Amino acid sequence: MELNSTLTCPACGHQATETMPTDACQFFYDCKGCGTRFNPKAGDCCVFCTYGSVPCPPVQEQGKAKCCE
Asked: Does the predicted TM-score (pTM) go above 0.70?
């Protein structure tokens, strides 16, 4: 299980490696480059699944259908 994921801001392209929570989905993230707050795209459970280099722990373990039930 990979717990670190590199988020890429959709507004400015800034990248930051963050530790993903294992017990909750992260719906919002504030870019450390430009300050833009972004959230997951439709069909994704969290910002890591949409903008991260690695999907969130529940998706890694059980697949996208089981995320954040």
From this structure: yes
